[in-house]
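step 3/5: co-fold with iron/sulfur cluster
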Amino acid sequence: MNRHPPKPPWLRTRISGSADCPAVMTTVRQHALHTVCAEARCPNQMTCFRRGTATFLLLGPSCTRRCRFCAVDKSPVRPPDPDEPQRTARAIRKMGLDFCVLTMVARDDLPDGGAGHVARTIAAIRRKNPDIGVEVLISDLRGDARALETVLAAGPRVLNHNLETVPRLYPAVRPGADYHRSLELLARAAARRPAPVTKSGLMFGLGERRTELLDTLEDLRRAGCRLLTLGQYLPPSEAHHPVRRYVPPEEFERYGRIALDMGFSAVASAPLVRSSFRAGELYRRAVGPSCPPLGEIFAKDGLSDND
Ligand code: SF4
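step 4/5: write tokens
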């Protein structure tokens, strides 16, 4: 018997093999890299691959955590691959991206949680692609402030860390994580000078209540979070956390407007939205149309927080 209710029409998408998107997939394979698009079975991978972009998964493909909504591999982790930063930088240059997204698995086995490896990857990318914008979607680094500073000092334009769901559901959905630790990480990044633009995301349909969602959005705003993604939870398999509800598109629209009214600079809210979906566009919406050199952004950003 199927554990999850059948998908409504607005969620029916086709995820076909790599034959449709040779360029991105070939580049990823040639550079022996992983994407979270494939590892997490993202419903948008065809759309993003056709746009010539992908989100690179660092330090994987296995994770040290057991989040109940996530399809990423859970087998024993391997030592970090010292050449991964260079290969990622080469692949991104080959793809000709002006904005790229890096993500990571949680590496609770490493002293710095993998922060140094992420920072080396950002540095390698920026050496090969000086004007590129880099977004990093990181784990909570077990709340290690020095590890966070290692990543931030490498100069990502966007620091993304997902809360994923409301605090009441953390034990069932996100064991190993801590709601307040995650908020603190975002607040620490937003308070830094110069500060990256901070971003977070939530999944709907795990059993959360409306009041809990609104409280969580308020918490994110209080932590200085400026970019937000809201999407529908889709269980990767029968073994994953049950989906409690398929939230209709019009409800996502309402939450998107509420979030903008709360002061988020840019919001992507729709059933198939995922953390790094159209990340460059969301960033540009927050900082303005063209993407000026980094220093200029930091200077402007430093001012804007006091407005
Ligand atoms: S920490 Fe991230 S990659 Fe690891 S299981 Fe949780 S969501 Fe998946």
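step 5/5: annotate
Residues 163-307 form a domain with the Transcription Regulator spoIIAA fold (CATH 3.30.750.200).
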